[in-house]
Amino acid sequence: LVKILSPLGIQPVITDLKQPEEVKKQCKDPGVKMIYIETPANPTIDCYDIEALTAIAKENGQLVTVDNTFATPYLQQPFRFGVDFVVHSTTKFLNGHGNSISGALVARDESFMDQVVFNYLKLLGTNSNAFDAWLLNQGMKTLEVRMDRHCSNAMAMAQFLSSHPAVSKVNYCGLESHSDYAVARKQMKQFGGMLSFELKGGLTAGKRMLKEIQLCQLAVSLGTVDTIIQHPASMSHVGVKKEIRKQYGITDGLIRLSVGLEDISDLLADIGGALDTVKN
Predict the structure, then answer these.
(1) Cβ-contact 85, 63 below 8 angstroms
(2) Beta carbons within 8 Å of 239's beta carbon, 6+ residues apart
(3) How far is CA 272 from CA 167, 175, 266, 268, in A?
(4) Residue 5: partners with Cβ closer than 8 Å, 6 or more residues away
């Protein structure tokens, strides 16, 4: 939004989507054309009230787009709440096997997709290659059964982490202690396979823990049958200034976990063993 759209003359306005009065204030500006929501958000797992934000946008004639990558259409259907566009990184849960790269844009207005969006896709070449499309199609056939297992494993993992002495906080919207539990429960069928947690030992503990991992995959992607773990401060967000990371809850001790389909006892043993090395 900042690095690509700003030079094109599209200026992003960053605001706290959990503060409706602030959102209403920003939306009074006629220059604002769209509200863009990612829920649950990466990597803090914050959830935003799609219905409430869409109502604000519609009062001011603005469009709403929701990034539904973490939830997938199986767990959350943003069109039910009146949004205009839904986007997915289909590389993630929809494909489910980490073997291709693709994305999808879906619009409520089919004629807009056919007459406007298709022309951009056709001329800019932003279409998937045939093999990646085939892999995505194959992956989506098992979406329901995979997501049920992702969700049950993630809940068990979140409950385990909540009681570990090396962990100060668990971000999983299925926990009643999560600040957005009520919002997630209202708009999601289950709570997904993504979570993050804070290590008391900060940056040093994060790096040390990941060196002890045996079963989980160390990578910055997510949504595959394999459990993927990463430390944003030293991996995906290493290029972001520390003060900016902290502003958005991405601390030095934050660990993000995409919980896979392995036997939960194996996952708990792997994560628990690695955590035990940093709990002191």
Answers:
(1) yes
(2) none
(3) 11, 19, 10, 6
(4) 11, 12
Q: What DSSP string describes 15-29?
A: --TT-HHHHHHHHTS
Rounded CA-CA distance 174/151 in Å is 9
Q: Across the strands, what pairs with 85?
A: 65, 107
Q: Where does residue 45 fall: left (phi above 0), alpha (psi -120 to 50 degrees), or beta otherwise?
A: left
CA 211-238-214 angle, to 5 degrees, is 20
Cα 279 off chain centre by: 27
Taking residues 82-101, report their average pLDDT. Answer: 97
In 3D space, the residue among 253, 256, 275, 274 whose CA is nearest the CA of residue 166 turns out to be 275
pLDDT digits (tens, 9 = 90+) for 117-174: 999 888 888 888 999 999 999 999 999 999 999 999 999 999 999 999 999 999 999 9
Side-chain half-sphere exposure of 78, counting CA atoms within 13 A: 33
Residue from 101, 99, 103 nearest 67 by CA: 103
pTM beyond cutoff 0.70: yes
Region of residue 96 (phi > 0: left; psi between -120 and 50: alpha; otherwise: beta): left
- Can you give the C-alpha Rg of the chain in angstroms? 19
Could you give phi then psi for residue 246, rounded to 5 degrees?
Answer: -65, -35
265 within 8 A of 229, measured Cβ to Cβ: no
CB-based burial of residue 10 (10 Å sphere; 0-12 exposed, 13-18 middle, 19+ buried)?
exposed
